[in-house]
């Protein structure tokens, strides 16, 4: 079978147009094509008056015809044998395998990374224990809505903490730019479809799910893990790590001290805590686990009418059913040396309260599968680096995040409302006092003020330079009534729990840092893939011993 990529057809092409297009591209007769199936579909909207659909297609020819085409088109990178994307377990527990004391694998965190790590370990017969400081997803959803509707924050159950992780209350994007030679991302998508995700995530170039579907998927995958012998412990936080030094002087994990007072012997643990487990990072640092500061970004959420984004991206083709609500990606290198870029863009969604600590305000974006709400929103953020902005301590980035989140809490009125400002006022350097034509979506509400009160000066300067640039690239992007809401600080983890090639901590054997919190992923799909890799590494080490 051949994989033909970058096959372009007009937006409104007839279904029967694909076969002759494939035949022409491969230089074969239509009768020689035994079967064809779409592997991926995206679009090319660079020319709004001539938008094209872009396909990857799997084509079956006879063995002789396939060999002839591959030889004739040997220099064409868009015609190759179809890759084998099936997943194969590197090891499996032998029949009747029983774990000795401390040998049963533990996963800390039930977000995308921990969920896939737990699933893979369960499918390999290793009966993992999944420890989650937050609640099961249904109860967690109630707590999250309590913050949005009543300004009541539950520190252990919110957008950041609980079953499903931060990705549950997001746009549910399922694409990534990571290198994935083993096609582990395909394994993730297949498991999501088994759990109730729509089939189109297997073929769309930029698939997404949305919050409501993620909730039911997460529950289904938990049931699968439990049926395979896995165990969940909700409302349980890891308060400390027992680390021993063996006869050779090597540090090894021995067990976990849990918030319920229990000591759990554990010699192999996957750390999938997410990017907001600040207290856990502090405990690891105090226990001598190797941690280093890493770059992240700070900024705001910016909201436009979705119709404006659709028109700017698709022109007369806006609202075409195949295209759906438009997304965008923008970037600008500011004169102060900072990169300004859009982040986690949510078409047809809303800005949400994402705080996990009392007295602090954090924003994020989410949407449902339909992406049918009135506004589009995106993070608009500015890069920061340890060397330049928070030198001297591996955990200094956490302190920086907390500082600006506290400033945002005060600027918003000290009641979990978010500080907001219209773009026109922001560019003019004056506080906003009334909304214009655009109503922000953030709950429990937006308090108009001057965002410079809760952003570093270099962020404010870079944003003021970038907004008119983006306005020239997308008409209306810098419209005076566009609303910005602060602050966006949880773009990625401010630390990296450094690991070696075996995916174990550099200086603590048995600890497998993984996912966003460990600094090795950035989004649902990449975190889930990293969870698979960590589970495989743990299983191979466990079963080899």
Q: What's the structural blueprint in terms of helices and strands?
A:
Elements: E1 2-10, H1 18-26, E2 35-44, E3 52-60, H2 63-72, E4 79-81, E5 106-108, H3 112-123, E6 129-132, H4 137-150, H5 184-194, H6 211-227, E7 231-234, E8 238-245, E9 251-258, E10 263-265, E11 269-271, H7 278-286, E12 291-293, E13 296-305, H8 306-314, E14 331-333, E15 339-346, E16 350-353, E17 363-366, E18 375-384, H9 386-389, H10 396-411, E19 418-422, H11 423-428, E20 446-448, H12 457-473, E21 483-488, E22 495-497, E23 511-513, H13 524-544
Parallel strand pairs: 5-6, 5-11, 6-7, 11-23, 19-20
Antiparallel strand pairs: 1-3, 1-4, 2-3, 8-9, 9-10, 12-22, 13-18, 13-21, 14-15, 15-18, 16-17, 19-21
Structural write-up:
With 545 residues, the protein is α+β, with helices and mostly antiparallel strands. It contains 13 helices and 23 strands. The chain has a seven-stranded mixed beta sheet with strand order 14-15-18-13-21-19-20. A five-stranded parallel beta sheet has the order 7-6-5-11-23, with helices on one face. A hairpin with a 5-residue loop joins strand 14 and strand 15 (339-346). Helix 3 (112-123) packs parallel to helix 6, helix 3 (112-123) packs parallel to helix 13 (524-544) and helix 5 crosses helix 13 (524-544). It is globular. The two termini are 40 Å apart. The mean pLDDT is 96.
């Amino acid at each position: 079978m051949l994989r033909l990529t970058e096959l372009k057809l007009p937006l409104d092409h007839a279904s029967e147009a694909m076969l002759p297009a494939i035949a022409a591209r491969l230089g074969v007769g239509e009768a020689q094509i035994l079967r064809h199936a779409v592997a991926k579909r995206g679009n090319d909207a660079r020319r709004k008056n001539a938008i094209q659909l872009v396909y990857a297609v799997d084509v079956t020819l006879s063995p002789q015809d396939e060999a002839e085409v591959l030889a004739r088109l040997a220099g064409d990178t868009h015609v190759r044998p179809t890759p084998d994307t099936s997943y194969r377990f590197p090891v499996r527990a032998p029949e009747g395998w029983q774990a000795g004391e401390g040998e049963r694998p533990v996963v800390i965190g039930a977000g995308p990374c921990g969920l896939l790590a737990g699933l893979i370990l369960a499918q390999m017969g290793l009966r993992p224990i999944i420890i989650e400081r937050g609640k099961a997803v249904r109860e967690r959803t109630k707590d999250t809505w309590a913050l949005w509707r009543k300004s009541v924050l539950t520190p252990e159950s919110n957008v950041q903490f609980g079953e499903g992780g931060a990705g549950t209350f997001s746009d549910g994007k399922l694409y990534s730019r990571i290198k994935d030679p083993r096609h582990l991302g395909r394994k993730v998508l297949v498991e999501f479809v088994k759990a109730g995700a729509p089939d189109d995530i297997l073929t769309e170039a930029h698939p997404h799910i949305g919050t409501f579907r993620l909730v039911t998927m997460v529950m289904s995958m938990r049931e699968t893990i439990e049926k395979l012998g896995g165990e969940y412990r909700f409302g349980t936080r890891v308060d400390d790590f027992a680390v021993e030094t063996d006869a050779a002087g090597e540090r090894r994990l021995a067990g976990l001290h849990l918030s319920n007072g229990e000591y759990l012997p554990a010699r192999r643990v996957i750390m999938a805590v997410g990017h907001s487990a600040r207290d856990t990072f502090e405990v690891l640092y105090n226990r001598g686990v190797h941690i280093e500061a890493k770059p992240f970004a700070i900024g705001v959420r910016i909201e436009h009418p979705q119709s404006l984004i659709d028109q700017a991206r698709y022109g007369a083709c806006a609202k075409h059913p195949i295209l759906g609500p438009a997304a965008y990606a923008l970037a600008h290198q500011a004169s102060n040396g900072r990169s300004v870029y859009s982040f986690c863009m949510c078409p047809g969604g809303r800005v949400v309260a994402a705080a996990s600590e009392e007295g602090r305000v954090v924003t994020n974006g989410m949407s449902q599968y339909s992406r049918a709400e009135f506004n589009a929103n995106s993070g608009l953020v500015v890069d920061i680096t340890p060397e330049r902005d928070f030198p001297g301590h591996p955990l200094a980035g956490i302190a920086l995040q907390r500082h600006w989140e506290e400033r945002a809490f005060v600027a918003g009125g000290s009641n979990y409302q978010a500080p907001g400002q219209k773009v026109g006022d922001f560019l003019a350097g004056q506080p906003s006092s009334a909304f214009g034509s655009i109503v922000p979506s953030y709950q429990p509400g937006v308090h108009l003020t001057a965002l410079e009160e809760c952003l570093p000066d270099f962020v404010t300067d870079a944003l003021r330079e970038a907004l008119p640039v983006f306005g020239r690239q997308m008409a209306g992007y810098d419209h005076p009534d566009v609303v910005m809401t602060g602050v966006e600080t949880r773009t990625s983890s401010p630390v990296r729990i450094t690991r070696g090639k075996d995916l174990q901590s550099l200086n603590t054997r048995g600890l497998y840092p993984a996912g966003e919190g460990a600094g090795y992923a950035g989004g649902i799909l990449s975190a889930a893939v990293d969870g698979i890799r960590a589970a495989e590494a743990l299983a191979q080490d466990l079963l080899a011993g």
